[in-house]
Amino acid sequence: MFERRIFWWVASIKIALLVAVIVVFGADRLFWSDSFVYKDLAKSIVVGSGYGDSLRTPFYPVVVSLFVGWGSFGAVVVAVLQAILMALASVFLFRTARFFVSERPATLIALLFAFEPLSVLLNILILPETFLLLFLILFWYWFVRGYREDRMLFLAYSAIALVFAILTKPVALYLWVLPVCFLLYSKRIRRACVYGGLVFVLLLPWMIHNKIAFDAFTVTTHDKASVCGYLLTSVFASEFGKDPSNMDVSIFPPEFQKAQARCTTSGVGLRIAVFEYPASFVKTMVLSTAAFFTNEGYGAFFQKAPEESIKAHHNYLTPVVFADVEWRRNLIEAARELSVPVLAIIFAGKLFWTIIVLLACVGIYSGLKDAHTRMPTIFLVLVLLYFVGVTVMSTGFGVGARLRYPVTPILFLFAIFYLVRRYKIV
């Protein structure tokens, strides 16, 4: 009963919000940021030009390609599909929450995640995050259930969901290590081999495609591009006290160009950052992690066109601003650009996420103390740490609320879990 209600509540309200956006702003507002990249990749698939991108994995562009020929109506169809998939994701988040709490607080967790403002925005836009979230929630739900019940079928479902997550966005590429290690630790060696083998076999066709098209036998070349680009730029911004949101490398001394020239792989890039600039690397990681957890993302609702904005990037209103020696001036300028009500909304969002993160930390501690919830707590915490680590080390100061989206349901789950345990709020 609860699952059916959650599905229809989320699907119907999401579609109603989508209709409202289209009526008020038009279907063109469904495209933002990377939406145009995915649209171009979809058109390339339709006209038979092939998939000319070694950074982005193909699942979402393939989905968009099914409707891209329908013009604006095709974008609306994709957005409706995303609303339905978000409803399904909410149901499986409810099932995940049932490992920890009863039906009513599990319902609250599912609905809180579904209707958090940034979640609403990402479900409407032509972006892959909704698909990614669905596959990730399926991945961890089926793994925890399969691990507890020792059923290979459920573990296989988890592996398949993980493969679809990887093919949606490569940020999940190394996540397979966690379930394999869990299975090896519990001495289920055969199941660990099957799990890892299934992931590899299902990804193999795409790796062969990349070898043929780009001479790279890999799922994506995104890790090298991110580490040698975003991360090194961020570390040097910390090292020399430069503008952390300015990607113009000419502001750095010549040694930056030399470092980038030596950065031939992601491993080399990390070695340069960690061992040659250790203090700046630590500073970058601390500020990026703080931004990861506290960026509310609501500034996107009020973002001006670049030519009208003091700074197109929103990082002047996040902890990242402190990397620049002129952080006071930058912070004041960014604040002056927005009205008082907008600033109030943005900082209320930051306060909200700070509270959610703190409650989640206490909830994690509670989950670790209870033998019944210890295993799913450990697994979900490792998933959380994986995304934090991969995100801040690959994007540096480019981290934003959109990149936190994969772990948003985990934060809500543990925050509500603590409140239920401590205060019996539901």
Query: In what range is the share of β-strand residues?
Result: under 5%
Q: Measure the end-to-end span.
A: 18 Å
- What is the molecular shape? globular
Order of helices and strands: HHHHHHHHHHHHHHHHHHH
Output the radius of gyration: 22 Å
Structural class: mainly alpha
What is the number of independent domains? 2
> How many strands?
0
Report the mean per-residue pLDDT as an integer: 89
- Helix content, binned percent: over 70%
User: Which residue ranges are poorly predicted, with pLDDT under 50 across at least 5 consecutive positions?
Assistant: 309-313
The major beta sheet can be summarized as:
none
Query: Helical region count?
Result: 19
Compact summary:
This protein has 426 residues and is an all-alpha fold. It has helices spanning 2-25, 35-46, 59-65, 72-97, 103-115, 117-124, 129-149, 152-168, 177-185, 189-214, 222-240, 254-262, 266-276, 278-294, 327-337, 340-369, 371-395, 401-404, 408-423.
